[in-house]
């Protein structure tokens, strides 16, 4: 950003002092435009839903009605079928472990790639994955 006036050099079609406004005639999708709730996923191998009431006086740390409880060896399967463009997407997995560092890690996989990759512990995790428009993507 400029030392004289504080104006930042914005990305293409972004404007404003903090580069947080979209230039007229353009559209920017919110990063969480597509949200898949774990409670609506296919729950397998001992997974269950735990609905939560919104906390009073502080923001919720979750979206949707609550959490999916996933025991060791449990599987959540999300059916992703509304991808508008074939490209790499950033998948954000939000989770809250019951006991921090009490497990080896999370594994995720896309069935059409047939691989599983570990997640180290962190309150929010993400990775890039190639998704093809018009093709269903089971995401576990």
From TrEMBL:
Its taxonomic path starts at:
Eukaryota, Metazoa, Chordata, Craniata, Vertebrata
The primary site where this protein sits is secreted
Where does the record place it?
Secreted, Extracellular space, Extracellular matrix, Basement membrane
Protein name stated in the entry: Laminin IV type B domain-containing protein
Which top-level group of life is the source organism from?
Answer: Eukaryota
Which residues are in the Laminin IV type B domain? 28-140
Q: Which organism is it from?
A: Engystomops pustulosus
Q: Which key words tag this protein in UniProt? A: Basement membrane, Extracellular matrix, Secreted
Annotated InterPro entries: Laminin_IV_B, LE_dom
Query: What's an example GO cellular component term for this entry?
Result: basement membrane
Against Pfam families, the record matches this protein to: EGF_laminin (PF00053), LAMININ_IV_B (PF21199)
């Amino acid at each position: 950003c400029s030392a004289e006036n504080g104006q930042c050099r914005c990305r293409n079609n972004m404007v404003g002092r903090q580069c947080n406004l979209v230039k007229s005639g353009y559209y920017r999708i919110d990063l969480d435009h597509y949200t898949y709730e774990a409670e609506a996923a296919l729950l397998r191998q001992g997974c269950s839903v735990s609905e939560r009431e919104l906390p009073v006086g502080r923001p919720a740390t979750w979206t949707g009605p609550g959490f999916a409880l996933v025991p060791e060896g449990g599987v959540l399967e999300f059916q992703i079928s509304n991808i508008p463009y074939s490209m790499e997407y950033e998948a954000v997995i939000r989770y809250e472990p019951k006991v921090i560092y009490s497990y080896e890690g999370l594994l995720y996989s896309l069935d059409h790639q047939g691989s599983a990759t570990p997640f180290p512990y962190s309150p929010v995790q993400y990775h890039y994955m190639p998704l093809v428009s018009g093709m269903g993507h089971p995401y576990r």
